[in-house]
Amino acid sequence: MSTNIDKNSALFIKTKMIEQYKTIKDSQWIKLNIKNSKFHGRIYNVTSLVDVNTILKQVEVEFRKTTHIVYAYRLIDGDSIREYATDAGEPTHSSGPPILKVLEGYKLLNVLLVVVRYFGGIKLGIGGLIKAYTEAARKAVKESRIVTKTNKKLMLIKTNYRELSEMLYKIEQMQGKVIEINHGKNVKIKALIPISFSKRFDNKELD
């Protein structure tokens, strides 16, 4: 079973500058039994498609004999929200879209929600599948820890030695995070800066 993400099918939703957002800090696998079908669900914090693919490969290894690995994600992508959901072999719109709707309902970003199903021999029908996947997704979110994070940009800030202390103080005051300081003729500071403050720096934004 392949869970490779389809980059071309993702939906991009234009939005205003996202200064703060809700995401997941800690989570665990939850279990549901519905008419002999076993559902396992978990939500993860992710910040890129690389994270998504890495986790999906881990899930494939952990649940090798599963019938379906359904998932949905919501990622901050510049000034857009990148959304994607897959039914993973279940009837169209019966599983992926319902768990994506749960993420939207909780207004969660930079998250991946996975629901694994072992078929129990009894067909649930479209309505039954929607209800089951929604219930598993909600339980996974409820049993995780939701936190609020500040959206930050990685920036290269150039300054001189005379103003270095003042610059480091400013970064600290705006709740930024210094990643690296390079000393040369001048000083280059690689730092994560909150989106709302990033325009104050006439410097280079890094990917």
Can you give a write-up of this model?
- With 207 residues, this protein is an alpha+beta fold.
- The protein folds into two domains: 7-148, 2-Layer Sandwich (Ribosomal Protein S5, domain 2); 151-206, Alpha-Beta Plaits (2-Layer Sandwich).
- Helix content is 27%, strand content 40%.
- It is built from five helices and twelve strands.
- The strands form three sheets. It has a six-stranded antiparallel β-sheet, sandwiched between helices. A four-stranded antiparallel β-sheet has the order 10-11-9-12.
- A hairpin with a 2-residue loop joins strand 5 and strand 6.
- Helix 2 runs parallel beside helix 3.
- It is elongated, with a radius of gyration of 21 Å.
- The protein starts with 10 loop residues before the first strand and ends with a strand.
- The relative contact order is 0.19.
- The model has no long low-confidence stretch (mean pLDDT 87).
Task: Draw up the topology in text.
Elements: E1 11-14, E2 20-26, E3 30-34, E4 37-45, H1 49-62, E5 68-77, E6 80-86, H2 96-105, E7 111-118, H3 125-142, E8 145-150, E9 152-159, H4 164-173, E10 177-183, E11 187-194, H5 195-198, E12 204-206
Antiparallel strand pairs: 1-6, 2-8, 3-4, 4-7, 5-6, 5-7, 9-11, 9-12, 10-11
Helix pairs in contact: 2-3
Summarize the structure.
The chain has helices spanning 49-62, 96-105, 125-142, 164-173, 195-198; strands at 11-14, 20-26, 30-34, 37-45, 68-77, 80-86, 111-118, 145-150, 152-159, 177-183, 187-194, 204-206.
